[in-house]
Amino acid sequence: MKVPYFVPSVDENDLASVQRVMNSGWLTTGLEVKNFEAAFSDYIGSKFCIAVNSATAALHLSVLASNIKAGDSVLVPTMTFASTAEVLYYCGVKPILVDCNLKDLTLDLTDAERKLQSAQKEGAHVTGIMPVHYAGKMVDMDIVEDFADRHHLEIIEDAAHCMNSQYFSKKYDQWLNKSKKSLTQCYSFYCNKCITTCGEGGMICTDSEEIAHTTKSLSLHGLSTDAWNRFSSKGNSFYDISQNGYKYNLTDVAASMGCSQLKKAELLKNKRAKAVNLYRELLQKHPFIHLLDDDPERFKSSHHLLVIRYEQPDTLHPSRDQLLQALKECEITPSVHWKPLHLHSFYKKQGFESEDFPNATRAFEEIISLPLFPDITEEQIVYVVNTLNKLLHVEKKF
Ligand SMILES: Cc1ncc(COP(=O)(O)O)c(C=O)c1O
């Protein structure tokens, strides 16, 4: 049996939407993007949504539109994808990497406090924090909000994994899918995310009209009006370049798939949830495999990734890297999210050292992301678990 890491769920409706736009005579940013932004705004419950061509672009524009300025420093988890910190360098801002906790691999705020104090002692002007909601489970934003208030930090949420996740806020006594205090939430529609817009795409969500206006204009060269408006019968044919911007707009072709995928976002999530529940049931009492803490009383996950920690018991058992390779040889494709930033050569050159991130360094040696996608079958999941057991010399068979 073959178990790929991910298979996108693209159905007839998605294809029909794309084809309709391909035949319409208008391919780039236009009405479809406006419709997608409006539908996403309803789904997320955000006043303004600005569609862009990646979450990386969304994060970059959020930093540019914020009060974070060149020369400042911003707290970022080391356990994240390249984008979260790289956009800070685009803006001349220095990332301060922060360790994760071991229970769910999200930002450790005790370490954030330590790192912030030590950076400030060295004269850093720390003005922001970028929590990353990991694998589908959100960071407890109550704690982040208090931390940010105490230190006067701007919050930008990297919500690439989490378009349908929630946390229970004790502070506001309600389930929330975003902090009430963050400047923006940045979502990804990359091919394996909760929904996709033809493989690449992103969204900036904000309740601030000013941030919406600035990021919208920055996403298209800083122009005062887009092509759709210029070419419409009542539109002005001229534009003004009001600020130096970027080419980050989403196409109508991509947005049409976004509209179609958004309609089944809950269905896709429920299918992933079913798969995760089965994995968790089969792996829950495993001697060497630990599941991350899901804490369902306080968190509803989007189930974007299924990350396990494998603790090699002794050298008679495979190492994590050997296990990854052995799974591939059994036609199961795993992944790793992530090698933390501080272990990459670029970040080592910036002076980050392993011993300052003991949890993330240890987690990296143990984590494996198992195949997960909406249409994964029960048989495939059982095959993955049985194969893991066989490779780890565990008797249990399902
Ligand atoms: C946590 C996180 N942030 C940002 C990104 C970047 O998303 P995109 O590929 O849409 O730029 C990713 C992509 O995988 C991610 O995992």
Structure description:
The chain is α/β, with parallel strands linked by helices and 398 residues long. The protein has two domains: 12-264, Aspartate Aminotransferase, domain 2 (3-Layer(aba) Sandwich), CATH 3.40.640.10; 266-391, Aspartate Aminotransferase, domain 1 (Alpha-Beta Complex), CATH 3.90.1150.10. 38% of the residues lie in helices and 14% in strands. It has a seven-stranded mixed beta sheet, sandwiched between helices. A three-stranded antiparallel beta sheet has the order 7-6-11, with no helix packed on it. The longest helix has 19 residues, at 265-283. The model has no long low-confidence stretch (mean pLDDT 96). Pyridoxal-5'-phosphate (PLP) is lined by residues 54-56, 80-81, 83-84, 132, 158, 160-161, 188, 190, 202. Pyridoxal-5'-phosphate (PLP) binds next to helix 3 and helix 4.
Please indicate the percent range of residues in DSSP E strands (runs of 2 or more).
5-15%
Distance between the termini: 16 Å
CATH fold node name of the largest domain: Aspartate Aminotransferase, domain 2
| CATH classification class of the largest domain | Alpha Beta
Listed once per kind, the bound small molecules are:
pyridoxal-5'-phosphate
The strand order across the widest sheet is 1-9-8-5-4-2-3
- CATH structural architecture of the largest domain: 3-Layer(aba) Sandwich
Main β-sheet description? 7 strands, mixed
Order of helix and strand elements from N to C terminus: HHEHEHEHEHEEEEEHHHHEEEHHHEH
What is the radius of gyration? 22 Å
